[in-house]
């Protein structure tokens, strides 16, 4: 019979994300409460906070706020953290568009996706879509290799 441990990891991540979102939003408002400055930050912050609240409510309702786990979550989390760190460091070298596509593909592989058509199609479509969106919306130039900036 295996021994279960309480896993607080998901809860800590949700609280950390909420705290970081509130800190970033308050800092953005403190620096400049102009519409142009908050045009993207305020709606995305609200969306993130609503998703976090919704997730917490669902977990409380189902009694799984702190899930019980047999697995060592650190073994599954560290490769994702390393991949994200590599992504951030590669942004200037590969450009936001290519780095995002590669990050998504590697993340999906890491999470067990083996359908190459789905993996490639989603990574390219979503990665380039996000890169194009941000290149058009942000008021400063981005490093892009494939898309025109």
What's the short version?
It is built from four helices and two strands, in the order E-H-H-E-H-H.
Percent of residues in helical segments?
over 70%
Ends distance:
58 Å
Radius of gyration: 19 Å
Q: Note the run of SSEs as H and E.
A: EHHEHH
Structural class: mainly alpha
Mean pLDDT across every amino acid position = 85
Which regions contain 5 or more consecutive residues with pLDDT less than 50? none
Query: Beta-strand percentage?
Result: under 5%
- Most strands sheet: 2 strands, antiparallel
Discrete helix count? 4
Shape annotation: globular
Give the tally of structural domains.
2
In spatial order, strands of the major sheet run 1-2
Please count the beta strands (DSSP E, at least 2 residues each).
Answer: 2
What report would you give on this structure?
74% of the residues lie in helices and 4% in strands. With 149 residues, the protein is mainly alpha-helical. Helix 1 runs antiparallel to helix 2 (35-61) and helix 3 (73-110) packs across helix 4. It has helices spanning 9-31, 35-61, 73-110, 116-137, and strands spanning 5-7, 67-69. It has two domains: 1-70; 72-149, no CATH class.
Write the layout of secondary structure elements.
Blueprint: E1 5-7, H1 9-31, H2 35-61, E2 67-69, H3 73-110, H4 116-137
Antiparallel strand pairs: 1-2
Helix pairs in contact: 1-2, 3-4
Keywords for this entry:
single chain; 149 residues; two-stranded antiparallel ribbon; 2 strands; 74% helix; 4% strand; globular
